Amino acid sequence: MRADTSNYRELFLRDVPMLDTRAPVEFGKGAFPGAVNLPLMDDAERQQVGLCYKQRGQDAAIALGHKLVSGPIKARRVAAWAEFARAHPDGYLYCFRGGLRSQISQAWLKDEAGIAYPRVIGGYKAMRGFLLQTIEDAIAQCGFVVLGGMTGTGKTDLLRQLGNSLDLEHHAHHRGSSFGKHVTGQPMQIDFDNRLAIDILKKRAAGHDRFVLEDEGQAIGCCSLPVGLYRGMQSYPVVWLEDSLDNRVERILRDYVIDLCAEFVDFHGREHGFDRFAERLRQSLDNIARRLGGERHGQLAGIMDSALAEQRRSGRVDPHRAWIATLLTQYYDPMYAYQRQRKSQRIVFAGSQQAVLQYLQDTARHGPAAAK
């Protein structure tokens, strides 16, 4: 039998398959990428056992657990674990603290299915602690550069060309603006933290010790940045990406109209997808109505409605450029111009896509004195 492990680093670096025996409610609050939830006890059973533990102690709780999970119920759960173990002979199982639940699951697998399957010592709690420490260590030990720029300059596109970038919006599954929601929802905060930590872990293992981050607020949608990282972003050197208004309009049109509409149609089907897309676009504009002011919001809403009607009728997206250009020049650009002025002392480089890409690639290799 392979030995039980506490080598959390290797588990995450190698994307080792993991069988999570916690209850579904625990799994739903946060999990590791790729982990499969095959619980020892369902939520109701866990609640009963927990209540018994408080009232009558551990021995009584264990006895109740064995009574609740017995016969056909036990057989089905062991069979599910055995199927996972055979499909993933290099995997591990775990529970919350690496204690009774994973030990019982491990014993039942051996006794009932003849499979010796190792567990993670310390369980979910220890692995979660390891990942949080991974983020803290990187903040303390690595260099960071913040990539800024007006809305639509293609910051995310540029980040994805770099081997040392941390794509926060990707991990948060949100584009980071009032219009940034995707069709499907965002991860739980714990899942966001875990994804970011594993990304950092793998990039550091590949030899990177300088990272590029897109300039973000404290929250990306409903996902909050780690406190230490956000604080650091207020002092890290800034590289400012520049591009023409026409190019920026085209990127916004691609991301928030063409691609987003396609997402909704793929997810909801052609019949309802466009309606959901149009509803989302209107709601995104309504979300900033107070900051736009009533008159300007009404004007933009009218242009957007006309553009959506034409898109529905003919498939043409050209009319959307009007509200996009107005929103950029009258709403987003003044805010970003203020931010640039406020961060001017920290801007170490500014330029076009190609110039900034070259600068950041050189920084990754050699590291400017200001990059840490």
Word description of this protein:
- The structure is a single chain.
- With 372 residues, the chain is α/β, with parallel strands linked by helices.
- Helix content is 60%, strand content 9%.
- The chain is built from 17 helices and ten strands.
- It has helices at 8-13, 24-29, 43-56, 58-68, 71-87, 100-113, 123-141, 155-159, 168-172, 189-205, 227-233, 245-268, 270-286, 289-292, 294-314, 320-342, 353-366; strands at 18-20, 36-37, 92-94, 143-149, 165-166, 210-214, 219-220, 223-224, 238-241, 347-351.
- The strands form three sheets. A five-stranded parallel beta sheet has the order 5-6-4-9-10, sandwiched between helices. A three-stranded parallel beta sheet has the order 2-1-3, with helices on one face. The chain has a two-stranded antiparallel sheet with strand order 7-8.
- The longest helix is centred in the last third of the chain and has 24 residues, at 245-268.
- The model has no long low-confidence stretch (mean pLDDT 94).
Strand order of the largest sheet: 5-6-4-9-10
What is the strand content? 5-15%
Estimate the mean pLDDT confidence.
94
Percentage of residues assigned to helices: 55-70%
Overall 3D geometry?
A: globular
> How large, in whole angstroms, is the Cα Rg?
25 Å
End-to-end gap: 46 Å
H-E order: HEHEHHHEHHEHEHHEEEHEHHHHHEH
The parts where pLDDT drops under 50 for at least 5 residues are none
Largest sheet: 5 strands, parallel
Number of helices: 17
Task: Let me know the number of strands.
Answer: 10
Q: What is the quaternary state of this protein?
A: single chain
- What structural category characterises the helix and strand content? alpha/beta
